[in-house]
Automatic annotation (TrEMBL):
Pathway: Amino-acid biosynthesis; S-adenosyl-L-methionine biosynthesis. NCBIfam families: PRK06038.1. It catalyses: S-adenosyl-L-homocysteine + H2O + H(+) = S-inosyl-L-homocysteine + NH4(+); 5'-deoxyadenosine + H2O + H(+) = 5'-deoxyinosine + NH4(+); adenosine + H2O + H(+) = inosine + NH4(+); S-methyl-5'-thioadenosine + H2O + H(+) = S-methyl-5'-thioinosine + NH4(+). Catalyzes the deamination of three SAM-derived enzymatic products, namely 5'-deoxyadenosine, S-adenosyl-L-homocysteine, and 5'-methylthioadenosine, to produce the inosine analogs. Can also deaminate adenosine. The preferred substrate for this enzyme is 5'-deoxyadenosine, but all these substrates are efficiently deaminated. Likely functions in a S-adenosyl-L-methionine (SAM) recycling pathway from S-adenosyl-L-homocysteine (SAH) produced from SAM-dependent methylation reactions. Residues 54-400 form the Amidohydrolase-related domain. Zn(2+) binds at residues 63, 65, 211, 299. Its cofactor is Zn(2+). GO terms for biological process: S-adenosylmethionine biosynthetic process. This is 5'-deoxyadenosine deaminase. It is an enzyme of class 3 (hydrolase). Pfam families: Amidohydro_1. Substrate binds at residues 92, 184, 214, 299. Binds 1 zinc ion per subunit. It comes from Methanococcoides methylutens MM1.
Amino acid sequence: MADIIIKNGYILTMDPSADNIKNGVVVIEDGRITDVCEKTEETADTVIDAQGSVVMPGFVNTHTHAGMTLFRGYADDLALSDWLENHIWPAEVELTGSDVYAGTRLACLEMIKSGTIAFADMYFFMDEVGKVVESSGLRAALSYGMIELWDEEKGKRELKEGKSFVNEWNGKADGRISAMYGPHAPNTCSKEFLMKVREQATEDNAKIHIHVLETEAELNQMKEQYGMCSVNMLDSIDFFGPDVLAAHCIWLSDGDMDILRNNNVNISHNPVSNMKLASGIAPVTKLLDRGANVCLGTDGCASNNNLGMFEEMKAAALLQKVDTMDPMALPARQVLEMATVNGAKALDINSGMIRKGYNADVIIVDMNKAHLNPLYDVPSHLVYSAGSSDVRTTIVNGKVLMDDYGVVCMDEQKVIDEARDAAADLISRVDAKK
Ligand SMILES: N[C@@H](CCSC[C@H]1O[C@@H](n2cnc3c(=O)[nH]cnc32)[C@H](O)[C@@H]1O)C(=O)O
Ligand SMILES: [Zn+2]
């Protein structure tokens, strides 16, 4: 007997070797997808009727700072440097482990409700984040964000903290959690520090998550400091590889794109944050044309201001079209790939497709809605019309985290109340210091 059978749904496999199934069945056992077919004789403990819905791989959000939900709407309409240096960083000084716990719980709740099955995070108090991910049932690639600022002592402390997190958490929660090194960016970490991180990551068999060329200011600073841009500098120290997840990658030259592609670097595109902070437009179409693995992230809630991947997909598609003045650029199907298949590849997880043997990381999207009818093309609706609140069911590792809009893995109201209280208390501490 199987654990779960999902029947009567439109199966959007995202599997290049398999067709979608108009009225199909997905069978789940021991955390894996064991069958994808038109009909089955199997029985299961749980049978989910997906009539009128799309059954598809859940989303992979490849760049977040989950705990920043507490800063949702706190400081808007500012440029990145002003926003970080004058608003966010002074407020983050007051953050405690329990704040990050509460903020990350809220983030996980939001992600489960909007169909995200895995996320890549970079923040502080990562033990708290690890605990939340472990109990929530989600998957995550977590990193302690290291900022060195050319201060050798700070660098030592940061690397020590990063390393102890990697050593404790890599592979935990039955493999649902992987731990990465998180050097913040080439303009907040020195070349020497980045070399040490690269060496340590290789030694510990851990991946690396870093911001790269998010702003023109970073590009200018790098040229002044090293006489070359961040990508060339990182390439000169052999930093890149398929184990690197580089967020943003906006200010790239054609040569930089070749370097990222040739080194199989995973690139997290975060269009909403990039537009909100007016950081620029990443050359996603050119990167994809080169065969680079471009995936999709929301960035933190203070620069988005939510963690919804439907909105992110639509923004990605529209932004490339207007940037290239080509309405055929980044079509719906390709954006869906970024949000599922490519994200799973970046985090090195066997998810992102509805395929036999893959992780049972499956969502069900309710299409019986006014804004989703009539239905000609499923990818089109998912990218251009659907929203976070259309996700009915979220399954991760074969466990139902939300079914028929009801979150079963946590007490939704309690999570919201606790985050609201933590935020109010945090901001009153920040204000008291002003
Ligand atoms: N250990 C570090 C913390 C780094 S966590 C990662 C950092 O990235 C910041 N952050 C959030 N969004 C962005 C962004 O879009 N670009 C650059 N940094 C960001 C976030 O506020 C947080 O300070 C320290 O002692 O300061
Ligand atoms: Zn970021």
